[in-house]
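Rotation project, supervised by the postdoc (A.L.). Task for the rotation student: set up a whole-complex structure prediction and record inputs and outputs verbatim in this book. Inputs entered:
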Amino acid sequence: MRLPCPLCGERDLREFYYQGAAVSLTRPDPDAGADAWADYVHLRENLPGDLEEMWHHAQGCGAWLVVTRNTATHVVKGAKLAMDTKRADTKRADTKGART
Ligand SMILES: [Zn+2]
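Outputs recorded:
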């Protein structure tokens, strides 16, 4: 399997470290409560289909990526830099907060 790093291009899977589903980008607030933190740490949907996953290009540029991969077929549909994804989410949250 090859993964498309946005900075390096397509690279062999062995250059990457797999962290799991990209739930780390939606971390609860520190005071969200024990139930929210337990869900965040332990619960995963684990359904077949497209899933956003965190991959670290450890043997390449060192970037953290959000890779969209179909868990049933292993087809990789794309990858983006995690820092760009987090910034986009923060901007959306800021925009929502401005409206209320
Ligand atoms: Zn890279």
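Student's summary: DSSP finds two helices and six strands in the chain.
Supervisor addendum: The domain at 2-99 is CATH 3.30.2270.10 (Folate-binding fold).
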